[in-house]
Amino acid sequence: MLKRLGVAAALALAPLLLPAVGFAADSYPVRPIRLVVPFPPGGGADTAGRILVAKLGESTGQSWVVDNRGGAAGNIATEIVTSAAPDGYTVLLGFATALTVNPTLYPKLPFNVQRDLQPVTKFASAQYVLVVHPTVKATTIQEFIALAKSAPGKLNYSSAGVGSPLHLAAEMFKFRSGVAIVNVAYKGGGPAAAALLGGEVQVLFGSVPATLPSVRAGKMRALAATGLKRLAIAPELPTIAESGFPGFDVTSWYSMLVPARTPKAVVARIFDETLKAVRPADVVEALGKQGLEVETSASPEAFAAEIRAETAAWAKVIKAANIRAE
Fold first, then answer.
1. Does pLDDT of 14 surpass 50?
2. DSSP per residue over 157-224, as a string?
3. Which of 95, 185, 218, 259 makes the best surface tag, with the fewest CB within 10 Å?
4. 230 Cβ contact partners less than 8 Å away, ≥ 6 residues apart
């Protein structure tokens, strides 16, 4: 009898609760929002996040607080957000590899990116640049491929460690081109670039800030960029995609995601506010100084589809190269 009364009471209350949920979503936000960043303070992700939250705070009328939760290749931050209440007050600053590479590299994660997160939008992206030491006798991608194939395993490339974007960019290139170049891992992108400058290795897929100044000083030679479109900061540099590998696209991007089951109205508000926040010229300039270009998604659904496609593409590369997390 008590059970039946409890069910009846719950059913009676249900219509009254639904408007309350809708009202909460419509009035969002009413308190500070936490942006969980998967890297320590001072790095590129942290800087990008702080540029963004300054504008979001102005436009939403609520503080956005950066919460740095580095470690485990971004998995710690992702787990925090997947475990949070789906109310829009805990947001993940998503990094490309953490969302599209880690699911294959770490098969026993306590969460599922595609099941437990609701993508909102990308807001910035960064390409990499394929550079070689000046002693390498190649000035184009095709010349480099011919040189590498003439001496398999003789050319070394530096990376920031197994599973890092620099490593994965090189492995994607190997997968598409069929060249055999050897990874030499260093502790970070800076040491990886220094290794090329010092002649310890011959090849590097490096970030724009780490490579272009040295390229312009004649200490490195740039062969191509890794995105689908040419770099705004170096439009003379061709892309790998236009150099014989259609569709080749290795970019790191920063994005906004919330826990799954977050109300659609809240997701839409964060989407709109993020797109508005990255439009001002001062934001574009500030991100540009970090080697980033503003790039947003057409919709949360389009961004979700992109994550699925990139995850599948990286899974093929990781399995083909037998890459294992360290």
1. no
2. EEESSTTSHHHHHHHHHHHHH----EEEE-SSHHHHHHHHHTTS-SEEEEEHHHHHHHHHTTSSEEEE
3. 218
4. 237, 238, 239
**Cα(82)–Cα(38) distance, integer angstroms:** 13
- For the stretch 222-252, pLDDT in tens is 999 999 999 988 999 999 999 999 999 999 9
Supply the DSSP string of 83-129, one letter for each residue.
TS-SSSSEEEEEEHHHHHTHHHH-TT-SS-HHHHEEEEEEEEEEEEE
Output the pLDDT for position 269: 97
Whole-angstrom distance, CA of residue 136 vs CA of residue 34: 48
Three-state SS at 49:
helix
How far CA 143 is from CA of 24, 136, 170, 195, 314, in Å, comes to 60, 10, 17, 22, 26
pLDDT of 135 strictly over 60? yes
Contacts of 221 (CB under 8 A, 6+ apart): 131, 132, 133, 134, 136, 138, 139, 215
The secondary structure element, H or E, covering residue 313 is: helix 300-321
CA distances to 25, 170, 171, 318 from 178, in Å:
51, 11, 10, 15
Cα 127 from Cα 240, distance rounded (Å) = 11
Structure tokens at 26: 């419509």
C-alpha–C-alpha distance, residues 183 and 164, integer Å: 12
207, 123 Cβ separation under 8 angstroms: no
Q: How far apart, in whole angstroms, are the C-alpha atoms of residue 11 and residue 246?
A: 57
- Closest to 49 (Cα-Cα) out of 61, 34, 27: 34
pLDDT of 5 over the 70 cut: no
Is the model's pTM score more than 0.85? no
Mean pLDDT for the stretch of residues 209-226: 95
At which residue do the structure tokens 């990886």 appear? 192
Give the whole-angstrom CA distance, residue 107 versus residue 246: 30
DSSP codes of every residue in 247-301: T---EEEEEEEEETT--HHHHHHHHHHHHHHT-SHHHHHHHHTTT-EE---S-HH
Q: Please, what are the domains in the chain?
A: 18-125+253-321 (3.40.190.150), 127-243 (3.40.190.10)
